[in-house]
Write a structure and sequence with these properties.
This protein is an alpha+beta fold. Helix content is about 20%, strand content about 25%.
């Protein structure tokens, strides 16, 4: 009886190993454009701005509280960061109850010319705000779907087609596309409870 159980165990293991190898081989057949893209939950921006990592924020900026925008209802408090050539805006959202310099949601969009006058912002040396998955403003909808997958909800939001991906533990990603199917705004992080 024991020999039979051992034989069944090894047979199951062999089948599982062959199944995994066939999955690995098929997953290697990806589009050349996204061949080296690592799928990351809780991505960073430019390898500098990380969700829920106050230590990283403190190494970049001594104190962001002077830049915190708190009276822009209905939005939660946030810090504005602009890229090197002042064409893109990164908003770091702070949720009440978060630790000091700890941000829970990032939003990236094109910077409007009228924004800089009279606005609080921190300048960044990033040329473009890009995630580890190589997602940045201007990528196509098809490119994004190749990276993120087909399990999204599509709706019209703020006048744009918005693809939403919901992850574990109230994690959400939103991608806004214009009529030319180019990414004009995106955000990711924890949903505010």
């Amino acid at each position: 009886m024991n020999n039979l159980l051992i034989l069944i165990f090894f047979a199951i293991m062999a089948v599982n190993c062959n199944f995994k190898n066939s999955i690995d081989k098929s997953s290697n057949k990806k589009n050349d454009d996204i061949k080296n893209v690592e799928i990351v939950t809780y991505p960073s921006i430019c390898g500098q701005f990380f969700l829920h990592n106050k230590d990283t924020m403190l190494t970049l900026f001594d104190d962001v509280t002077g830049y915190l925008v708190m009276n822009d209802a209905p939005l939660l408090p946030y810090v504005n960061v602009i890229n090197d050539d002042k064409s893109e805006l990164l908003r770091l959202f702070y949720y009440p109850g978060d630790a000091y310099n700890d941000f829970s949601y990032f939003e990236i969009s094109y910077l409007k010319n009228s924004f800089i006058e009279g606005s609080k912002f921190i300048s960044s040396n990033c040329k473009k705000f890009v995630t580890e998955n190589k997602i940045e403003l201007g990528v196509t909808k098809n490119y994004l779907i190749q990276i993120k997958g087909q399990k999204y909800k599509s709706e019209i939001k703020e006048g744009y087609e918005c693809l939403s991906y919901i992850g574990p533990d109230l994690y959400k990603e939103e991608y806004f596309f214009n009529n030319s199917s180019q990414l004009v705004k995106f955000g990711f992080g924890d949903l505010y409870p």
